[in-house]
Write a structure and sequence with these properties.
The chain has 466 residues and is mostly helical. The chain has one domain. α1 packs parallel to α9 and α8 runs parallel beside α10. It is globular, with a radius of gyration of 22 Å. It starts with a helix and ends in a 12-residue tail after the last helix. The model has no long low-confidence stretch (mean pLDDT 84).
């Protein structure tokens, strides 16, 4: 009877999880649509522009995802504080997040500016790297604003209020779509900037989004009730240490997974421009469909964190397993979509008649078939990582991610592609192997952590937010 009650609790938690996940998914899809619009615009210029621009993005992304992982714990920590009845701590977390965003954004502009030199050092084609140099300049300009916007988004997510960030995100995407052709082609008297125009359009869009979302946080309840910008520059060293203690390993997790895809792109890039364009397309399509399980994972981190802050173990258990079930539910249609329509999806990013069109399609279609196969495991590893993050358990998942993503994922992919000579598609097979292994390990850890908490051998929250 007790077993049946537990399963019913999981099913009961599903509607609340989907209600929170739906608007988050919209926000995530809008966010990824920024990069998708950029890649689409690059493809309109030429397959060579797509190859060069996507390679430039791969240099930019490790810094972005490292900061994303660090700042994303703001959502779960804010939720924990609200669950514990301590909204003043949520305000302090937001302030320290803004300080971190400014410091990281300013400090990482320099390596982004030298992105072309980094590409050459990594063995990439010098012509492709040099062509992307102006792109790096304008991408660096907008990097601090990107991190500030992330901080604001995670703060609103922690309150389970999505409307403000949706407004800002929709306006940001709209501006980016308008500016991309204006600056890339030089329409209506604007300078013809090519790739550089695409980067500048994105940077200007993030600047505008920061102004909009920042204003909404300062003016609208419940955010404004905490006076979020009062003395925001004052460091809170104890809270900063807690954020770094929890966020550091989570940053490592995110950087490990996304870094696996980035390094895979560099390995595939050794096979030429067509392979590089193909991996850019496959990567972006995979990223778009990943927004759905990612929205489930973010909801889990918030709801698990809020329940943990309130000391409700049974709710923590039900929400966490409901997240795993939700991941399986959404994986099925995504798998079918990618398996049935790979060429149709790939052609969205290619210009008809491009000299590299057919060669690129021959590589990207099997990559998308493999992407279809790892939908369930990719969603599961993201969701159970988020469940554990809601309990401030981030250190061991970071270690597992290192082993699975780099040792297994990149290791097997590089071995098959470079040593066995199986070509660029085999790199994608290695990634699928790493994701699946990590999903199995993290599911087992979630089960074990719940048992330890139930038996009194582990605290519900390892790190206090007080």
């Amino acid at each position: 009877m007790h077993f049946i009650q537990k399963q019913m609790a999981i099913l009961t938690a599903l509607p609340a999880l989907f209600r929170l996940s739906a608007p988050i998914a919209i926000g995530q899809l809008i966010s990824i649509s920024m990069l998708t619009a950029d890649f689409w615009m690059m493809g309109r210029l030429s397959a060579f522009d797509l190859a060069s621009g996507s390679l430039a993005v791969r240099v930019y992304q490790p810094f972005y995802f490292l900061c994303l992982g660090l700042l994303s714990i703001i959502a779960s920590m804010v939720a924990q504080s609200i669950g514990a009845g301590r909204p003043e701590i949520a305000r302090r977390i937001y302030r320290q997040g803004l300080i971190l965003a400014c410091l990281l954004g300013g400090g990482l502009m320099l390596p982004i500016l030298f992105g072309a030199d980094i590409l050459v050092l990594l063995g990439q084609d010098a012509e492709i790297a040099s062509y992307a140099t102006p792109f790096f300049i304008y991408a660096a300009l907008g990097f601090p604003f990107t991190l500030i916007f992330l901080t604001m988004r995670f703060f609103t997510l922690g309150h389970r209020r999505i409307g403000a960030q949706l407004i800002a995100s929709i306006l940001m995407l709209g501006l980016n779509i308008i500016l991309n052709p204006l600056l890339a082609y030089g329409l209506y008297g604007m300078p013809e900037m090519g790739l550089a125009g695409i980067a500048l359009a994105t940077s200007l869009s993030y600047m505008m989004a920061c102004l909009i979302l920042g204003s909404l946080i300062g003016l609208r309840a419940p955010f404004s009730e905490t006076k979020p910008y009062q003395n925001w520059w004052r460091p809170d060293m104890e809270l900063m240490k807690t954020m770094l203690k929890v966020g550091g390993p989570n940053a490592f997790i995110v950087a490990s997974e996304t870094g696996m895809f980035i390094v895979a792109a560099f390995i595939v890039g050794l096979f030429g421009s067509s392979a590089l364009a193909a991996v850019a397309i496959a990567n972006q399509i995979a990223a778009v469909v990943f927004m759905l399980p990612l929205s489930i994972s973010q909801s889990c981190a918030i709801l698990v964190g809020q329940s943990a802050g309130a000391g409700r173990l049974e709710d923590v258990r039900a929400i966490g397993w409901a997240g795993g079930l939700a991941g399986l539910i959404i994986a099925l249609p995504l798998t079918l979509l990618l398996a049935i329509y790979p060429e149709t999806l790939a052609r969205i990013f290619l210009r008809d008649g491009d000299p590299l069109e057919l060669e690129t399609l021959a590589i990207v279609v099997p990559m998308l078939w493999i992407t279809a196969l790892f939908q369930a495991s990719d969603g599961a590893q993201a969701i159970f990582t988020a469940n554990l993050r809601g309990l401030n358990d981030t250190r061991m998942p970071a270690f597992y991610g290192l082993i699975c993503f780099w040792g297994v994922g990149i290791g097997t992919g590089a071995f098959m592609a470079l040593y066995l000579g199986w070509g660029p598609v085999s790199v994608w097979s290695g990634l699928a192997t790493g994701l699946t292994l990590n999903a199995l390990i993290l599911t087992g850890r979630w089960h074990r952590q719940l048992r330890l908490i139930r038996d009194g051998q582990r605290k519900l929250l390892e790190t206090a937010t007080s």
